[in-house]
Automatic annotation (TrEMBL):
The N-terminal region contains the highly conserved SGGXDS motif, predicted to be a P-loop motif involved in ATP binding. It comes from Pseudoalteromonas ruthenica. It comes from the Bacteria. This is tRNA(Ile)-lysidine synthase. Residues 364-432 form the Lysidine-tRNA(Ile) synthetase C-terminal domain. SMART domains: TilS_C. CDD domains: TilS_N. GO terms for molecular function: ATP binding; tRNA(Ile)-lysidine synthase activity. It catalyses: cytidine(34) in tRNA(Ile2) + L-lysine + ATP = lysidine(34) in tRNA(Ile2) + AMP + diphosphate + H(+). One of its GO terms (biological process) is tRNA modification. GO terms for cellular component: cytoplasm. Ligates lysine onto the cytidine present at position 34 of the AUA codon-specific tRNA(Ile) that contains the anticodon CAU, in an ATP-dependent manner. Cytidine is converted to lysidine, thus changing the amino acid specificity of the tRNA from methionine to isoleucine. Keywords: ATP-binding, Cytoplasm, Ligase, Nucleotide-binding, tRNA processing. InterPro entries: Lysidine-tRNA-synth_C (IPR012796), Rossmann-like_a/b/a_fold (IPR014729), TilS/TtcA_N (IPR011063), tRNA_Ile_lys_synt (IPR012094), tRNA_Ile_lys_synt_N (IPR012795), tRNA_Ile_lys_synt_subst-bd (IPR015262).
Amino acid sequence: MQDTFSSELDALLKCAPDTKGLAVALSGGLDSMVLLELAWRYAQRENLALCAIHVHHNLSADADQWLDFCAQQCEQREIAFFSERVHIGTQTRRGIEDKARQERYQALDSCAPAGYVLLLGQHRDDQVETFFLRLKRGAGLKGLGGMQALSYWHQRPLLRPLLGFSRAELNDYAERQGLLHIHDESNDDNGFDRNFLRNQALPLLSARFNGFYKKVAQSMAIIQRQQRLLDEIAHDDIANAHGQSSLNLTSLRKLSDARYHNALRYWLHSHDVVMPSEKQLQDLAQQLSCARADSQMQVPLKRLHGLSCVLRRYQDHAYLCTEQPSLEAQRLSTDCTSVTLSDGTVLSAQAGEGVRPLEGAEQLSVRFGQLSSVIRPHNKAHSKKLSQWFKALQVPPWQRQRVPLIYYDDVLVAVVGYFYNYDYFSKNGVQWQCSERPK
């Protein structure tokens, strides 16, 4: 088993070439103890740093004992050990599972040293259970494909090197090696859907159909390959619709309904959006396709990791926008070359084609949302309100309030990222730039 595990981990680590160490998610149960033992032997052979992380969920009266057990097992092997307590609160049964998973990954990521990959102990039986859980929720190919051997939590690689092993194989290995492990009594509560499948439904199917778990896992591997093909098609369709920051709906409408929905699903997933149901996705596609050109469509969505965003439509483009607080005006020093705005965006000035330098006692400031200010751009023949210039430039309405505006005293002299005031323009002046265009 060690050789097979090592080969699988070797292959996964090739996808994370800058790995500085391994961090094992250690609950103390059978799966994680086998993972700890296999990873410990692998790290010794490869001379690779190793640590283990235990998350204390405060959900069991035995949780303190489990923490002590994990610490002792790591001490015996001279493995660096970290732990963190999380509070789940009162939730529904499914809510507890989902909340615990989110809190666990967050805690694992915060405890793991920089550059370490996280090793998780899910195995083939877990994969089959996941298939049936998602099947009863009406999941599509991506959901039915189950867990990936390599995924990410924010930028942290998550590796699952045990997906090719059954629970029985892990149990046999633990017995041969004399590995101790704890038993979480919550796994006996069939009120949880996963436990019901594990303890009652799936054993019946396995007894009836020879090689049941293995065949389901094979089907899931096929589904994953088919999903990768759909992702490749969607990637090309998205590229033809002008990239990642927005979707050109005119281009997407030229596709078949199936490819249109596939591209939309891929785009949402690439932005870490929690995937809407099939009906919700169809409704979104309908709204994006059929809304009036001047409509201000706003659909709230959730991102992974508890964040939120809004799907907007403007000038036949779709945008995913994160809600942000209003930006604050700032008085700048006359010799200012760089300033961090209240949203973290960096505004900088350098010599170049732009606004003429300050003269005399002129005061320098950055303001936002002054859309009624009148300005003549350096490349235009007349003056108009800023709101009218933004409309002509097709700047989405929600972005207009976040564009930095440079003032000399009370005169708007630069609309950062767009143009300069004709009366203040200089070929050898000050060029203002943002490190990232506000969204």
